[in-house]
Amino acid sequence: MKQLFKFCAAAMLIGAAGIVAAADGAPVTNTAKSEFVTARQTHFSRKGQAYYIVGANFWYGGYLGAPSGVGERKRLLKELDTMKAIGINNLRVLAVSEKTDMKSAVSPATTAKPGEYDENLLVGLDFLMAEAAKRDMTVVLYLNNFWQWSGGMTQYLNWFEGTPALDPNVTKDYDDYMKKNARFYVNAAAQKEYRQVIAKIVKRVNTITGKPYSEDPHLMSWQLANEPRPGNGKATKEEKAAYVKWIDDVAGYIHSLDRNHMVSTGSEGLAGSAQDAQLFLDAHRSKHVDYLTYHLWPKNWEWFDSRNPQGTWDNAITRSRDYLNSHIELAKKLDKPIVLEEFGLDRDGPSFSIKATTRIRDRFYKEVFDVVYTRAAKGDPIAGFNFWAWGGAGRAANADYWWKPGNDFMGDPPQEEQGLYSVFDTDTSSLELIKEYGDKLKSIKR
């Protein structure tokens, strides 16, 4: 515990720096606490008012912000302006990637090897945060990935176990991939490095604004990882316990570095919890986890077949509504907000082409938005949504729709066909739906 300064002169110096005394490297700024997004029981608050998330997944935002190499700052500004125009107030963004030999992973990466960082990409993240702030957008930054498309946990295990980084796009064995990745939570060397990476980002001072990330009110939440899971669908009791402990420990560690911001898990919900509701509750019960998250993927979970939309639509929508509503009920049990931070559906056909229509996706979005808005208007703990994902002005460059280094970044990461779930800036009907329901959600008073 740091001691409080005893002399007025010292206190004046601290005040001039915009910081008051705090504990364990977790400064509190002179920025009014109300400027930060906070969880007040089952709802978010910002600037003294209810704050509902009308968000987009924009995983590559920091990449576009890089001053050289893969950076496209002109495009980034255009994307932010377009999203702002349709009412987007929140972005969910990848903060860190790990260099890997896997071909279905993004390149370059933030971390070339343990302790070695690409400053160009970190400055890109700085630029994104600065520009988001100009538009009064808030940002969720996730610090790892259960999936291979950014290196993630499988790359950590490659570094510290010496085992090959498994690419399920190649092996086609997702069960084995998930089983192996669960070892990340109990690998001491991997956890030490992961915490060093967390500290590197959380303690970073933005090179554009001069403001520490820990003092930036436009950062909404630190997120442990994208879609962390306890293992595969047959996760053992020991694996589940290790997963829950990892969440509590790491969330607590982040709060020890930064007392201003919320921490979230990035969980998919029951689909990412071995269909175990108690596990999902236990993972979010921690006092260090400020709100719940969940994702909805009817095609990925084989509820919907885009080659047979008429024959599978009713099943997909019934199960989607049940999934949406059941998680809101789970959030009630913990008296915390919950965010639907991923959902998507492919284009008509199915097709990856930007020329393909989006009638079925628009119907799906409307069903999702209806549930979110109706439950929020009743005062239930659903706090908003982030659709997956913003493709914006990006365009697929290859006939097979697979990403290669040098191609535009799009909403679909490199492990998926480019155009699979992206919402483009020309998808007028989808953009109108997002704005319509976003405006309705933000009009709710608390």
From TrEMBL:
Entry EC number(s): 3.2.1.78
Gene3D superfamilies assigned to the protein according to its UniProt record, in alphabetical order: Glycosidases
Presence of keyword S-adenosyl-L-methionine: no
Highest taxon of source: Bacteria
Any GO MF annotation of the entry: mannan endo-1,4-beta-mannosidase activity
Position of the signal peptide: 1-22
SUPFAM superfamilies, per the entry: (Trans)glycosidases
Domain Glycoside hydrolase family: 34-445
Enzyme class: hydrolase
Catalytic activity: Random hydrolysis of (1->4)-beta-D-mannosidic linkages in mannans, galactomannans and glucomannans
Keywords, ordered alphabetically: Glycosidase, Hydrolase, Signal
Full protein name: mannan endo-1,4-beta-mannosidase
